[in-house]
Each structure stands twice: as C-alpha cells, then as structure tokens.
Amino acid sequence: MPHKRRRTIHHASTSYRVVPRAAASRREQSEAFGQLQSSLLFERAFRPHFMEDVEQRQTLIDLALELGVTYSEHNLSMVSTAALYERVKHEVAEGRVLLAPLLGGGSAQFGGLGSTHTEEELRAGEEELALLRRTYGVLLNANGKLAYTYRAQGRWCYRVEEYLTHRDAYLGAGEAYFTYKEQGQSELDAKNAALREVIEPSTKTRPDKPDWQAAQDVFYAWVRRGYHNKFGLAVDVPALIRARMSPVLRYVLQSVRVDSGVEFQCGGFNPRPMKQGGYRLGTISDHAFGTAIDIEDSKNAQVKPWARIESYTGLKLDRGTRRLLWQSSPLELHRRITESSRKFVQKIAQAVEAQGSLDEVIKADRDLASMREFVHKWHQGFFSLPWPVVRECHSHSLVWGATFTTPDLHHFELPSNMAQSI
Predict the structure, then answer these.
(1) Distance between CA 414 and CA 240 in Å, rounded?
(2) Residue 408: φ, ψ to 5°
(3) Cα(341)–Cα(365) distance, rounded to whole angstroms?
(4) What is the pLDDT of residues 335-374, one digit of tens each?
(5) Domain for residue 196, yes or no?
(6) pLDDT of residue 29
(7) Measured between alpha carbons, how far is 202 from 136 in angstroms, rounded to an integer?
(8) Domain membership flag for residue 77
(9) What does 109-149 look like in DSSP terms, one character per residue?
(10) How many domains, in total, are found in the chain?
C-alpha cells in the first residue's frame, strides 16, 4: 500500500480516508483511536466477514488496539476471511496506514454505524461496564471469545454496544431490565442483606471497592437469570443459594472422605457465572448449583497455560489423552500430571541455581515469560492431590477438571445425568 497518498475507500454507507500513519494529524489519530476504542467502527467494518470466526476477529482487534491504530480494507466481499485476516494483520504489524472515518464532522464514538442504542443508552452502558470492571475485572460474553472490558494502551476500554445487545437479549431491554435488576436488589437487601454476604465480591476485598454494592446489583441480575433459565421463573433463587451444596454431592463427598481415609479441605459453592479469563456473562457456573467442588484449591492449580507447561517440561498430555485416561486409567492420569508438576519444579529449581533468581529464569525462557504470574505462584508445584482422593472421586463417577480444555486440577463435579436430577 502506498505510503504517500491519500485515497477514499467506500464500504456500505460509510467512507474512510486511508492515510500514512506518519502523515496523520494528532486530531485524526485521536479521532480514529476513539472510534476503535468504542469497537463500533472496526467491528462494523469487519462484522460481515468475521462473524463466523470470532476468535480471529478478536485477535485482530486486540492487535490493532495495542498499536493504537484502526484499519480496514476495500473489496471486503472479494476476500476470504483467512486471507483478509492475514493481510490486515501484516499491515497492522508493519504500522503502514491509519484509517480515519469521514463522518461529516465530529467524533461518532457513540451511536451511528448501525448502532441500535441511543447515545444516552451507550453512555449509561459504559458507566455500567466501568462499575462492573472496578469490582469484577474482566467481563466476557457467554462463550468467552469477546471481552467487554479489556486493557489497551495502558487503560481500560469497553465494548459497550456488544454488551448492551447481549444484556437486552438476556435480561430484557429498557425498563424490563431495570425492573428485573430492582427485583434482584430487593432479594439482596432482604433479611438484613444476608444474600449480599454470599454473592461476590468476597467480603475480604470489599474495603478496596467503594462501589461494590451497586456493581453487585448488576452482577446478581446476570446470576439470577442463570438460575431462572435453568429452573424457571417461579423458583426461589435466594432459597437455592441458601441451600448451598446439593444433597447428592454432599453424600458423595462424605463417601470420598471415608473411603480414601484422607482429610482434605474443600469448598467451591459460589453463585456466579462461569469464569475463565474473566466472568462469562450469560452463563451460570456449576459451582452455583452446588454440583461442583474444589478440593485443596490453594495447592492445586487451574493451569491456563497448559500448552506452555507441555512445552517447558517436554511432557505431552493433551485433552483427548486426559479424557481417555480418566475413563480407562485414572491412576495413569494422576501419575502423568504428578510427573508434569515434578518436572516443572525440578527444571525451574535447576535454572534458579544456575542463574541466581526466579525473575532472571523467567526472563530468559520464552515459555516461562509467557506465564510469569503462574510461575511466581506455582513454581514449587501445581499439583499435589493424593491418589486415594482422586481414586475415590473417580469411583463415585465425578468428573475431574483435569479433563477440561484448561485443566482445573482441584475441580470435581457431578456428571450431567446426576446433576440434572437435582
């Protein structure tokens, strides 16, 4: 693409001026970044061609955000998704051009470009997302592929339009949403606000979150709908939450303790959405139904960087193998995870002895550098569950989180046929 000329690209009803990045004025850069930050311009331009590949679109948006520039391409309908992705990713990486919208004056950060919400609704939606983010951190859509709150250029950004569209569909639009949220707020405040003590954020972190209660009102609306979708609108959600662990899981857990002969700490009841890299709004966790349990979670990790663990240790144990072994040879699965943890610890310890400090070891190794936080927390071992405990969990037909895509080594849950009977 030429570096010294300007041209106009027409896409749908919107025109864009493509300019060399160096030639763009501060105002143009600021305007274009504001457009991208709201996710309206970039996603509207690519939505028809990336909707079927959310993960690629998300990666491209994040990459553009990191560089603080927006990009489009002409003749979108003529280019396949994969080819377009690779081409635009290359141009982003090269930092060649900046795309500035020609919208007839002023920034269109809110509204326009096909938005289905008013400017007032979008501003209120951004305030709600900011409120949730301050208390709950990263928020995702239901499948976990799209982040509504995320960091770019050292600051928090929000995908407001996408959040509101999801909220309208899940909780109701307009007044219906506010009525539903107020009903939940009444449940939270009933009986000396007893329910507020159970719903996140935890009581330990609340002193650092001055507006946690207002955030909890919104968070609980999402959680409450998850219960209603599973059990029907007539269900007494506070009563379900007060019951905590299901009778079936309570019986199984007691049997595991007796039959294994091992005492262990466990917990895990938590009325919240699913959580992996952030809260997946529009879902409800098994922990919310009392059908899942965490055993010794302070000593056994959820290993998000599993592929990096495999690379660093040289011990391959993919999900298909883990699932097969849990069905046919749970002892072998336990042995291989134990060995992965042991080798992880041993290799780091040897490197620290040679290089002097853990930080230096992390800095020098690509795998470790990509999971710095995990290494700092788990460098002395990420798995220690005794075999008798795992054996009895298997014998009582529990599903082990080690079989998940992201291995959750402290997590056990009732199989779906047992959980659905609750």
Answers:
(1) 17
(2) -115, 95
(3) 18
(4) 999 999 999 999 999 999 999 899 999 999 999 999 999 9
(5) no
(6) 47
(7) 10
(8) yes
(9) SSS-TT--S-HHHHHHHHHHHHHHHHHH--EE-TTSSSBSE
(10) 2
| CA nearest neighbour of 264 among 236, 299, 295 | 295
| pLDDT for position 421 | 54
Which of 115, 148, 181 is the endpoint of a domain? 115
Burial degree of 381 (CB within 10 A; 0-12, 13-18, 19+)? middle
- Paired residues of 412 in beta bridges: 293, 400
Distance (Å, whole) CA 210 – CA 338 = 42
Q: What is the pLDDT of residue 155?
A: 85
36-71 pLDDT, tens digit per residue, is: 433 333 443 443 333 344 444 454 444 444 443 333
Residue type, 318: D
C-alpha to C-alpha distance for 8 and 313, rounded to whole angstroms = 52
405 Cβ neighbours under 8 A, 6+ residues apart? 319
Domain-located, residue 374: yes
Three-class SS of residue 404?
coil
Report the length, in residues, of the chain: 422
Domain that holds residue 316: 306-419
* Of 98, 115, 132, the domain-final residue: 115
Indicate whether 165 belongs to any domain: no
pLDDT at 156: 87
